[in-house]
Specification:
9 strands, alpha/beta
Length: 330
C-alpha cells in the first residue's frame, strides 16, 4: 500500500466513524493531561502497570487511567486518538491492522516465539518500520504490552505432537475470519462460540477443545472439563500502548524521556508477572490431573506460517518482513 493510499484509507476510516461525545481535554502549560483508555479490568496486572506509570510521571503529567472501556468503546481507541478525543490508548494490533493492513502480520500464528521475541522485534529495524506506519496514522507506539500466550486445551485424551494430530478436532475459536483462520492454521477444525458457553460445550462434548492463555483457562475453570493442555504457544498475545503522535511530538525531550522510561519500567514488570503466573499455572494444572506437555513446535510453526503465506491475509505483508521478524529471534 502506498503512502497516499494508506493516508486515504485512514482518512476514510476516521470520516465514517461516529463522533465521540467526550470533549478533548485541554493541556495545561505545566502539566499536560493524559487520559488512557483500556479494556482491562481493575484487577488485571496491566491495570496495575498503568497505575504505576501514572504515579511515576505525576510530577510531569496529569495521567488519568480509565479501565474497563469506561471512557471509549473497545476497538475505538485508535480513532479516538486520531480525532483528538483521547490522548492514550491500549490498542489491539487487529484494530490497527484495520487501517494499516501491513500490521496484520503481527496477528498471525507463530510470528513470535515468546514475549522476549515480541519485545526484541519492536526494538529492531523491522519493528521500527511498523511503528513508523502507526506514526503516520497519528499514533505513537510506546510499547507492546504482553498478556499471555495461547495454548491448546483439549478434552480427548489423545497425543498431539504435530498439526496433523489435530485433524478432525473441533476447536472453539473466537468469532471472526482472522480467528477462525488461526484455528485452521494449527490444524484444527475451528468453530465460533461465545466465551461464556465454552465450559458447557466442553463438558457436553459439543466441542473437543479451545485455546486461551493459561490464566484464562484457570479463571474459567476449563481444567475441570478437559484432560490436557498442549503447549503449542501458537499466538503471543499483546496489545499496543500508544499516545497521540501529534501530542508526543509536541512534548519536550525531557517530557518524552520521563514518559517512555516510566512505560518501559512498568511494562517490563507487567510482562514478567504474566510469565511468572503462566509458569505457576503449569504446575497447578498438573496437580489438577491434567497432562501438560510441549508438542513439536517447529512442525506447528512451519505448518501455520505456510498456511498464512498461501492465504489472502499475507497479501498485504511487506515483502521479506516475515523472514526479517523470524531472524530477530535467531
Amino acid at each position: 500500500m502506498t503512502q497516499m493510499t494508506r493516508r486515504a484509507a485512514i482518512a476514510a476510516a476516521i470520516a465514517v466513524t461516529t463522533a465521540l461525545t467526550a470533549p478533548a481535554v485541554a493541556v495545561a502549560q505545566d502539566k499536560p493531561t493524559l487520559r488512557l483508555s483500556s479494556v482491562v479490568s481493575e484487577s488485571d496486572i496491566r491495570a496495575e502497570a498503568f497505575a504505576e506509570i501514572a504515579e511515576a510521571v505525576s510530577d510531569t503529567f496529569d495521567m488519568q487511567v480509565f479501565n474497563g472501556a469506561t471512557l471509549v468503546a473497545q476497538g475505538s481507541e485508535m480513532t479516538a486518538i486520531q480525532r483528538g478525543n483521547l490522548e492514550m490508548g491500549l490498542i489491539a494490533p487487529q484494530t490497527i491492522a484495520e487501517q494499516i493492513p501491513e500490521w496484520s502480520i503481527l496477528t498471525s500464528a507463530y510470528l513470535f516465539d515468546d514475549a522476549d521475541h515480541l519485545k526484541a522485534t519492536f526494538d529492531s529495524d523491522v519493528g521500527q518500520e511498523l511503528v513508523d506506519m502507526a506514526e503516520e496514522a497519528g499514533i505513537h507506539v510506546l510499547a507492546p504490552v504482553y498478556f499471555g500466550t495461547r495454548q491448546v486445551n483439549l478434552a480427548p485424551e489423545i497425543e498431539v505432537m504435530t498439526p496433523e494430530d489435530l485433524n478432525g478436532i473441533t476447536m472453539r475459536m473466537p468469532g471472526g475470519d482472522a480467528w477462525q483462520f488461526l484455528g485452521e492454521a494449527i490444524g484444527a477444525n475451528p468453530t465460533p462460540l461465545a466465551y461464556s458457553e465454552v465450559y458447557t460445550a466442553l463438558q457436553t462434548g459439543a466441542i473437543d477443545g479451545q485455546d486461551n492463555p493459561l490464566p484464562n483457562d484457570y479463571n474459567m475453570k476449563f481444567y475441570e472439563v478437559t484432560s490436557q493442555i498442549v503447549m503449542t504457544g501458537h499466538l503471543v498475545g499483546f496489545d499496543v500502548l500508544a499516545i497521540s503522535a501529534e501530542l508526543w511530538n509536541g512534548f519536550t525531550p525531557e517530557q518524552q524521556e520521563t514518559l517512555q522510561a516510566a512505560v518501559d519500567a512498568a511494562i517490563d514488570t507487567s510482562t514478567q508477572r504474566h510469565l511468572d503466573r503462566e509458569a505457576e499455572l503449569v504446575q497447578f494444572f498438573k496437580d489438577e490431573g491434567l497432562r501438560v506437555y510441549e508438542p513439536d513446535r517447529e512442525a506447528f510453526r512451519e505448518y501455520a506460517q505456510q498456511k498464512y503465506l498461501e492465504s489472502d491475509f499475507a497479501a498485504s505483508w511487506p515483502e521479506g518482513m516475515l523472514d526479517r521478524i523470524n531472524a530477530v529471534a535467531e
